[in-house]
From TrEMBL:
Alphabetical list of InterPro entries matching this protein: AAA+_ATPase (IPR003593), AAA_lid_NorR (IPR058031), CheY-like_superfamily (IPR011006), Homeodomain-like_sf (IPR009057), HTH_Fis (IPR002197), P-loop_NTPase (IPR027417), Sig_transdc_resp-reg_receiver (IPR001789), Sigma_54_int (IPR002078)
Domain of life: Bacteria
Keywords: ATP-binding, Nucleotide-binding, Phosphoprotein, Plasmid, Transcription, Transcription regulation
Protein name per UniProt: Sigma-54-dependent Fis family transcriptional regulator
GO molecular function, one term: sequence-specific DNA binding
Species, as recorded: Pseudoalteromonas xiamenensis
Gene Ontology BP, a term: regulation of DNA-templated transcription
Gene3D superfamilies assigned: 1.10.8.60, 3.40.50.2300, Homeodomain-like, P-loop containing nucleotide triphosphate hydrolases
Pfam family, one: Response_reg
């Protein structure tokens, strides 16, 4: 995505010169002739970087107006969760002012009149650093969300025992295989393992069921420009991204058997080559995998390599199903109610004691995901603050999720092949879930790996339905 630069300078010729130069390098340009106007632009436009003159007509030498803007920019970034960088410009070789500007958050500085090549280089470096900071902010937010997630709270012995194991394993660098039913929170536990480890790298997640066999090597190991048709630029693979961090292989059992040897090689040696390159690279991230499949059966069937399985499961942890930790259900339900109430701007609802007992008696085949969705429907569809068993039963109707697919249940169906019917159902489910693949899988009674296989088979792209819904 092209970066947007806000140029703040009271001299039109300076702004014009910078606009012409930076536009030629593909940057989008916004302008302001004062710090006050610049602050107003920040509230109106999405900006990646500010090119800030430190001296204005009101005070041409002290830099007070520029320093004032940097203070306001820091406050803006903090309150909005943004990482807008600033490069200070000054026509005065004032070392003290430069030090003050850097102290107040300026990323770099340049003297006027500037050298074009140096200005472009500084801006290029600063935008790259800002992009990394934004990624780190997003990661920190994910980790904070993980800390706050309800799955870390438990009163049940089985869950407390699991969390104790998780805590102990997290501090090591051992590869971990998380097994358990869909919806038990395996991906969240993978993030928690990374968060609690001594790793200094990134947490990189990849859904193995969503990678097509033809793009497997490109996704996992990367490719160089021109490696194949459509490779118009180089791509960094997941192993390289997670070089010093954690690589989470979700739905790892869905890895094509033809690609498992390549995955095994990297896990054993840490070596790989990008597609189209003969240069051997190294990366040895910690591997955390997750699956709800029975590997013993898959190995017997010849669809999963036993040696790869042994590489993945240095430690195997089974995530308890929700029905195995019924003591936690009322607490989890309350926290989901609070979370979804805040998201949708609805007053906090209260569970009656009867409602707590009703929920604790449910099996919740969809585990945490099902409980979360049930509480969200309660938040959206009911107006009473006090939740009763009757209210839960009303929104819990198992047919309600599938209702959009059954509006014409009594109409005569046209004769078609099974494949044609399957394609129609997939598209209808994606339409009703605005392209959410996991929700579509739930409606159709499929696992995540099963729906991804079918989407690949029929070349159906979930993002197309998200775009129609205005999500992308």
């Amino acid at each position: 995505m092209t970066a947007t630069i806000l140029i703040i300078d009271d001299k039109p010729d300076v702004r014009l010169s910078a606009r012409f130069l930076l536009s030629n390098y593909g940057y989008q340009i916004e302008e302001a002739d004062s710090p006050a106007i610049g602050l107003a632009r920040l509230a109106q436009k999405s900006v990646d970087l500010v090119l800030l003159d430190m001296n204005f007509a009101l005070d041409t030498t002290s830099g007070a107006e520029g320093l004032y803007f940097l203070d306001k920019l820091a406050a803006f970034n903090e309150s909005n969760g943004t990482c807008i960088a600033a490069i200070a410009m000054t026509a005065w070789a004032n070392t003290e002012l430069i030090v003050q500007a850097l102290h107040k958050g300026a990323s770099d500085f340049i003297e006027k009149p500037w050298d074009n090549k140096r200005l472009v280089q500084i801006i290029d470096n600063t935008t790259k650093v800002s992009k990394l900071k934004r990624s780190n902010l997003a990661l920190e937010q994910q980790l904070q969300d993980a800390q706050d997630e309800v799955w870390l709270n438990s009163q049940s012995p089985v869950m407390q025992a699991f969390l104790s194991q998780l805590e102990r394993v997290a501090k090591t660098q051992a590869n971990v295989l998380l097994i358990g039913e869909n919806g038990t929170g395996k991906s969240s536990f993978a993030q928690y393992l990374h968060q609690q480890s001594s790793s200094h790298g990134a947490f990189v997640s990849v859904n193995m069921a969503a990678i097509t066999e033809t793009l497997f090597e490109s996704e996992m190991f990367g490719h160089v420009k021109g490696a194949f048709t459509g490779a118009d630029k180089a791509r960094i693979g997941r192993f390289e991204l997670a070089r010093e961090g954690t690589l989470f292989l979700d739905e790892v059992a869905a890895t094509p058997i033809s690609q498992q040897a390549k995955l095994l090689r990297v896990l054993e040696s840490g070596e790989f080559e990008k597609v189209g390159s003969s240069h051997t690279m190294t990366a040895k991230p910690r591997i955390v995998s997750a699956s709800n499949e029975a590997f013993e059966t898959l190995i017997k069937q010849g669809v999963f390599r036993q040696d790869l399985f042994f590489r993945l499961n240095t430690v195997t942890l089974k995530v308890p199903a929700l029905r195995e930790r019924r003591e936690d259900i009322p607490m989890l339900a309350k926290q989901f109610l609070a979370k979804h109430g805040q998201t949708h701007g609805v007053p906090k609802k209260q569970l009656s004691s009867d409602a707590e007992r009703y929920l604790s008696a449910q099996n919740f085949a969809g585990n945490l995901r099902e409980l979360s969705q049930l509480m969200e429907r309660l938040v959206i569809l009911t107006s009473d603050i006090h939740v009763t068993p009757d209210m839960i039963a009303q929104v819990q109707n198992p047919n309600s999720a599938a209702a959009p697919l059954c509006k014409s249940a009594h109409a005569e169906l046209p004769l078609m092949t099974i494949d044609e019917a399957e394609q129609q159902l997939l598209k209808l489910a994606l339409t009703n879930t605005n392209g959410n693949t996991e929700n579509a899988a739930t409606i159709l009674g499929l696992s995540k790996s099963a729906i991804y296989r079918r989407l690949e088979k029929y070349q159906i792209v979930a993002k197309d339905f998200q775009q129609k819904a205005g999500i992308l």
